[in-house]
Amino acid sequence: MAGFSFSISLFFGGFSVKFFTDYTNLVLIAIVLISGGLLLWPALSRRGRGGVTAGEATQLINRRNAVVVDLRSAADFATGHLPSARHVEFAELQAKVGQLVKNKNNPVLLVCQTGQQSNKAVRVVQDAGYAEVHVLQGGLNAWQQAGMPVVKQGAAK
To answer: Which pTM value belongs to this model?
Structure first.
């Protein structure tokens, strides 16, 4: 295949444009496309999940006044939760979603123990008209593993 080469010519108003003149060019184009796809993969896969890390959640809360909604049971909420979190049990979310925030343009951060219930709740909150809804990836477990503070009976831990 040492001498293998081909060219594709396209005619636009009488002008001939050669796109591929050598097999090597095809390989280089394939490498560029594959590497570009691999670079974009993390951003695209994260967008699908809609989750934020503990650090990103802290920035949302501190810089953008995100409202934190804890979806766990009352007993779990009492054992420890994010500072300034509002408690709305997952089962009651549909009925209480309209009361979460006065300004529906404020970001909403949904938190549960592992992140699974929060992912299910995103659609409910978005359907209620909230513009920006985020999920804490890994839930409270990931928050605590990152060394972030939790509040237990009014005291930071």
So the answer is: 0.68
Residue 76 DSSP SS3: helix
Q: Taking residues 44-49, what's their average pLDDT?
A: 51
Question: Which pLDDT score, from 0 to 100, does residue 21 have?
Answer: 63
Tokens 């802290």 sit at which residue? 58
Map tokens 């999940």 to a residue: 49
Calpha distance 84→87 (Å, rounded): 10
3-state secondary structure of 87: strand
So where are the chain's domains? Answer: 9-48, 50-156
Q: Are 134 and 107 in contact (CB under 8 A)?
A: yes
C-alpha separations of 84 from 37, 64, 68, 136 in Å: 40, 14, 7, 15
Greater model confidence, 48 or 61: 61
Q: Fold for domain 50-156?
A: Oxidized Rhodanese; domain 1 (3.40.250)
Q: Please name the amino acid found at residue 137.
A: Q
Structure tokens at 58: 């802290």
| Residue among 85, 86, 82, 88 at smallest CA distance from 142 | 82
